[in-house]
From TrEMBL:
This is Uncharacterized protein. It comes from the Bacteria.
């Protein structure tokens, strides 16, 4: 099963395990209680999908763009590590592009 994270100009599609890693990462770090609850519901209900197109999600976009690059996990399996690094690199790029869009909207 694949997961998706939607941005204004891009859609990030990855395997569900990678998507759930990102959702859990965000849930563990987001300060806003309602955002944390929304992320937890997605995880608990096995819904690997997140829509970050609205400006109200700028704080989650910022976590991906600014915080995630320094906190990628280290896996024992080198092939999975390479796959995850490539996926997260693409996700981070999309989030950085979304940051620019969010600033223009403000």
């Amino acid at each position: 099963m694949a997961g998706n994270i939607f941005f204004l100009k891009n859609n990030w599609t990855a395997s569900s395990w990678a998507t759930f890693y990102v959702l859990q990462y965000l849930a563990n770090r987001v300060a806003d209680a309602s955002a944390r609850e929304m992320l937890t519901e997605l995880i608990e209900n096995n819904i690997p999908m997140l829509d970050l197109r609205g400006p109200q999600f700028a704080h989650l976009v910022d976590l991906i763009a600014d915080d995630l690059p320094g906190n990628t996990p280290v896996l024992d399996d080198q092939l999975l590590q390479q796959e995850l690094n490539a996926l997260l690199s693409e996700l981070i790029q999309y989030a950085r592009e979304q940051q620019i869009e969010n600033r223009e909207i403000e």
